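Example record for the data management plan.
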Amino acid sequence: MAGLCADRTAIVTGAGGGLGRGYALALAAAGANVVVNDINAQTAAATVAEIEASGGRALANTGDITSLAGAGGIFQAALDAFGDVHAIVNNAGVCRDRMFASLTEEEWDQVIAVHLKGHYALSNQAARYWRTQSKEGKPVCARIINTSSGAGLLGSVGQSNYSAAKAGILGLTLVQAAELGRYGVTANALAPQARTGMTEEVFADMMKVPEDGSFDQYDPGNVAPLVVWLVSEQSSAVSGRCFEIFGGKLSVADGWRTGPERDKGARWEAEELDDVVRALIDESMPPQPVYGA
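Corresponding structural encoding:
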């Protein structure tokens, strides 16, 4: 199948439904071989069946992304099926929403494990593989595509665990981009807004499909073209970025950076910082408000 991602192999986590399913279908339509990873074997198989019915190549996989060993099994399955891996699309996620003072240790650990450790484990397996290829003199044109969120960029009331994980993913993306570029690997992040299994109940009314046939801005398929482009070889010059995408809106996030500064040339005394800090804040760009604040 010819296309922007012809002969490239991508592993997409959480690809049984929502955004991940949209990515998998679009990548296959663009010519990629797709490993459809999802904890739900039935939905993973359904995504694969849809890809194959359209003439694409795909493999269903239910491996565990929250352990390095499990991620290794996923990666090896992709190699066994398609001979090489060119992209990791870290999409799988889970929510355990609760106000911070009521948040349990289990709810914290579950969200951090699926989002943050899940992003580490599969990407780490891939990075080791691509580094070896590069050191052996083989050409590498590989991609890590991570999933952050507006919650990671701004914070979200009732989602301290999710916001922390998504913010951590942004930091991880920056370091991956800086360290892996020498091996032919780019790393970028997405902060998408779309209808998914995590949002369709909480935001059911807001995200419902328009009855009048107008543009469905919450359709997960709106995000998929960006993922296809990022997986393709055309995106080789882009790394260390976070793309916000919602409906037809696309932007590159402008993250934390050093702001206004005062240099005393000596140690500050606590008593003199009140006026200094207030002045610096007055000169700084105010942060966007936390979601739900």
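Summary line stored alongside the record: The domain at 9-252 is CATH 3.40.50.720 (Rossmann fold).
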